[in-house]
Amino acid sequence: MEVNEALNIVQPQLTKERFAHTERVVEQAQILADQNGVDQKKAAVAAALHDYAKERPLRELRYWITHSTLPKDLLTFHHELWHGPVGAQLISSEHGVTCPDIQSAVYYHTTGKPHMSRLDMIVYVSDFIEPGRAFPGVQDIRDVSRTDLLKAAWMISSHTIQYLLNKQSRIYPETMYTYNDLTLKVQQRKQANSI
Amino acid sequence: MEVNEALNIVQPQLTKERFAHTERVVEQAQILADQNGVDQKKAAVAAALHDYAKERPLRELRYWITHSTLPKDLLTFHHELWHGPVGAQLISSEHGVTCPDIQSAVYYHTTGKPHMSRLDMIVYVSDFIEPGRAFPGVQDIRDVSRTDLLKAAWMISSHTIQYLLNKQSRIYPETMYTYNDLTLKVQQRKQANSI
C-alpha cells in the first residue's frame, strides 16, 4: 500500500482537523524512520492509519472489543484507549491491511507495549510530538527525538503516567508495562555506555 | 499473641531507630483501628511485625524469595519490596504467626494490593504517616487519615507512583494495581454519595 492510498482510506473517517493531525504524524514518522533506519513507506502508512477508528461511535468501538479477541479489560478503562486496538482490526477487515508490523503500530500507538519495535516507537512518538501538539513538556521530547527515539518514547510513557496521576485516573496496565520496559532499556543502555 | 510479645520478637531484629519507628507504627495503627472498627490488638500485632525482615541481609531475602512460592519478579525490582513478602513468611516459620490477616498486612505493607482489608490499609497507612515521617505531602495524608482510611490509602498509592516517576524507577505491578483499585473505590464512593 502506498502512503497516498492509506491517506485516501483514512480521510473519509476523520474530521478535517484530525486528518490534518494525521498528515503531520505521517511527516513526522517519515523523518523519524529516516533517522532510525526504518522503512519510510511502512512508517508513513502506519502513521496514516493510526487514528483510523478514532471517530467511530463509542458503541461501535465497544461492539468490536466485545465481539473479537481484543482484551475485555479495555472496556473498564477510558475509551480513549479503544480506537488503537479496534483500528488495528478494522484496517484489516475493511481494507485488507494485514501487515503485522503496521497493525502493531496502530494497535499500540496510545498505550505503547513492552518490546516495541522501532516502527511501533515511531508511530507512538510521532503521534505525541507532531508540530500541532502543544502539551507542557512536548518540546523537550521533540528535541530528544531528533537523536534518541528510545529516550523520547520513554519520556512519553512517563509523561502519560504523570498525566493520569494528575487527573486522578487509573493507569492501564499496558501503559505501565511500557514505562517499565523503556525505563529498564534506557538504564541498561546507560550502564552499557559507561563500561 | 499479645502486642508486647510481638514487640519482643521484633526488637532483636531491628536497629534502635527502626524499632522506635515500629513502636510509632503500632501506636498509629491502634488509633486507626479504633477509628475504623478493626480489632485493635490484631492491628497492633500486625504493625509490630511489619518490618520483621527489614534488616535481614539482602542475600537472605533473595534466598527466601528464590526458595519459596513468593513471586520471582520481586527479584527484578528494588530490594525495598522484598522485606514485606519475606517477613510474612518468616513470622510464620520462625514464630508460628499464621494468622492470614496479619500475614497479609505484613506482606503488602509496602506495595499494597487490590482489595485490601481494613487491617491491610491500617498497616499500609500507619507505616507511611507515623509521626516520625517527614515526606513532602505526608501531613495532608495524616489529616485525611483521621476521617477517611480509604482516601488516605489512595493518596499514599498515588504518592508512591509519583515518587517512582520522579526517581525514574520502574513501578512494581502490584503498586499500580493498588492505585487503580483504590482510585476506582474512591470514585465509586463519590458517585454513590452524590446520588
The largest contact between protein chains, plus residue counts on each side, is:
A-B, 15 and 15 residues
What share of the residues of chain A lie within helices?
55-70%
Order of helices and strands of chain A: HHHHHHHHHH
Write the CATH architecture name of chain A. Orthogonal Bundle
Task: Give an overview in words.
2 copies of one chain form a homodimer. Chain A has 195 residues and is mainly α. Chain A has a single domain, classed as Hypothetical protein af1432, CATH 1.10.3210.10. Chain A is built from 10 helices and no strands. In chain A, helix 2 runs antiparallel to helix 3 (40-49). Chain A is globular. In chain A, 43% of the residues are buried. The mean pLDDT of chain A is 97.
Throw out a few tags for this protein.
195 residues, mainly alpha, Hypothetical protein af1432
Sum this structure up briefly:
Chain A is 66% helix and 0% strand.
Describe the protein's topology.
The structure is a homodimer of 195-residue chains.
Chain A: H1 3-10, H2 16-35, H3 40-49, H4 58-66, H5 83-95, H6 100-107, H7 118-129, H8 138-145, H9 149-166, H10 173-194
Helix pairs in contact in A: 1-3, 2-3, 2-7, 3-6, 3-7, 5-6, 6-7, 7-9, 8-9, 9-10
